[in-house]
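Morning. Coffee machine broken again, so started the prediction first thing and wrote up yesterday's gels while waiting. Chain of 131 residues, entered below exactly as on the submission form.
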Amino acid sequence: MLQITPSRRRALLWAALGIGFGLAYRYLVVQQHWIGHLCDPGDGPWWCGPRTGLILFFQYSGFGILAVLTGALALWRGHAWAIHTALAAGGAGLVLYNAETAGIGFVMGLVAALRQPAAAEDKSITGEEQA
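Came back before lunch.
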């Protein structure tokens, strides 16, 4: 039976944070026409540069590529930071127009998050020590 362990709860939190960041950024910053018009002339407020940089990042599938790379690393090595990064980047990419690649990375992060505690429980049952 699937149990919600603290590590799985953290993984769900990172996934929710990624999706929440993506939703907030998409609907509060990217799709607001007045913000785009404010930044168009090139002499807008200080935050126009980071806004443009982040828009370019997801236009070139940055979130999706980051999610796939860290998702593969999470499946291969099982590092918690890789799992959390895959889930957060994948969640943000699903909302920010990188659904194809971000979805793959998000699923890899989910599989790694679900697999990690089960592997630790199996080792403790069989009596093997972790190196």
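The first helix runs from residue 6 to 30. Going to sketch it on the whiteboard this afternoon.
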